[in-house]
Amino acid sequence: MNLTRYIYLGPQSAACLRIEDSADLLDVQLLHNKHVELPAEHEYTRVLLALKHLVEAPVEQTPASVQPATSVVTDSPPSSGKKGAKSDAS
């Protein structure tokens, strides 16, 4: 059974779907603005799409590789005192 990820936009509901060529049942909770996985070719899915209660969820991409942050070393000595402070020179 191939499931497709959708975002549900209808009122809160639940359904028990009979999967073709199988005795299996698929229980789904349908909550407004939440992700749900449904079989794309199922009649119930098609009805929800026609009613505009479902939109296909965008595919989430994982970053290929994340580089750790590196620290930058500077040659300047640490400053003492406040920036812009006047010196005590007379």
TrEMBL record:
It comes from the Bacteria. It comes from Pseudomonas fluorescens. Residues 62-74 have a biased composition (Polar residues). Residues 75-84 have a biased composition (Low complexity). This is Uncharacterized protein. Residues 60-90 are annotated as: Disordered.
